[in-house]
Amino acid sequence: xxxxxxxxxxxxxxxxxxxxxxxxxxxxxxxxxxxxxxxxxxxxxxxxxxxxxxxxxxxxxxxxxxxxxxxxxxxxxxxxxxxxxxxxxxxxxxxxxxxxxxxxxxxxxxxxxxxxxxxxxxxxxxxxxxxxxxxxxxxxxxxxxxxxxxxxxxxxxxxxxxxxxxxxxxxxxxxxxxxxxxxxxxxxxxxxxxxx
Amino acid sequence: xxxxxxxxxxxxxxxxxxxxxxxxxxxxxxxxxxxxxxxxxxxxxxxxxxxxxxxxxxxxxxxxxxxxxxxxxxxxxxxxxxxxxxxxxxxxxxxxxxxxxxxxxxxxxxxxxxxxxxxxxxxxxxxxxxxxxxxxxxxxxxxxxxxxxxxxxxxxxxxxxxxxxxxxxxxxxxxxxxxxxxxxxxxxxxxxxxxx
Lengths: 196, 196
Known about the structure:
Two copies of one chain form a homodimer. Chain A has 196 residues and is of the alpha/beta class. Chain A contains five helices and eleven strands, in the order H-E-E-E-H-E-H-E-E-E-E-H-E-H-E-E. The longest helix of chain A is centred in the first third of the chain and has 14 residues, at 32-45. Chain A binds chain B through residues 23-25, 28-33, 35-36, 58-59, 62-63, 65-67, 69-70, 73-78, 80, 109-110, 112-113, and chain B through 23-25, 28-33, 35-36, 58-59, 62-63, 65-67, 69-70, 73-78, 80, 109-110, 112-113. Strand 5 (76-82) of chain A pairs antiparallel with strand 3 (29-30) of chain B, so a sheet runs across the interface.
């Protein structure tokens, strides 16, 4: 998605070879008019596919998922993160290791909001190692839901998450795939871009 | 807001005298078409007031705030919760005690996303004791921002938050004010409703 790539080039900050800060428009301050374009694009990319519900994970996925939900005209469910081991029987739980925060979170969704046979579109702002998505897919499996696909704003192409999902045959759409970050020059190279 | 009240009566579950569960449409599963009506209503209620930015707090405020942001055509910033005492100098921090979770969180916003003189509308899903809002207002004060008002979906009228904000002269708009919850009968009474 050209608009998103341009915005990343304009406002993204390369912190290290692994870390791209986009918190001025994506995951702390949020440009909701950009989110509208992102929502429209997901609608276009998953056109004709069955989507009964959108699922994301707190916190930074929620904004994009909700605005995307307007275009699909479906409810949005966000998985809650908890470090508590005290989990009620009414929820599906999966363990997710976060490389960013170096800790294991449990993500959970109330059983009443995932029904067997429902067609689910997963949406998130970032895809890196793919642990959050893998955790959500585990939960969808427990619930007997069908995974229609995964929509990601920014995929870190140099980490494994996208590869793992594609190898499983999952319909993954990433609006911008970052192939390389250069903290020395600040350069951001996207997949399929000519390297200058 | 009649639509919201009707939805609360239809799908809200009274757990105790203090606890109203609305997680089937507001803060776990989210009815984004309802959020559109909520956003429109906030736009109407704050019509003519200056709003440069909407601020909320993760996680359950984000959905309503983002969709409301579409109607105001402004960026949305969400304050992050952290229990860490390791806080960088680039953020404004406030301590917030949560009665729901019986713990103190720090909420923080990067300094770069709040500029002196900016007119801020605070949005959240719930107002109870008002600690989250008080924490955010503290942060706005540190940043030299101007508070235009506070928009809340559901205020618990039997707790103190609304009263405290109104006594400070803050323009508070709550779309539904719950006056009383009866866990025995499941009754939900709104402020200004005739008691049946």
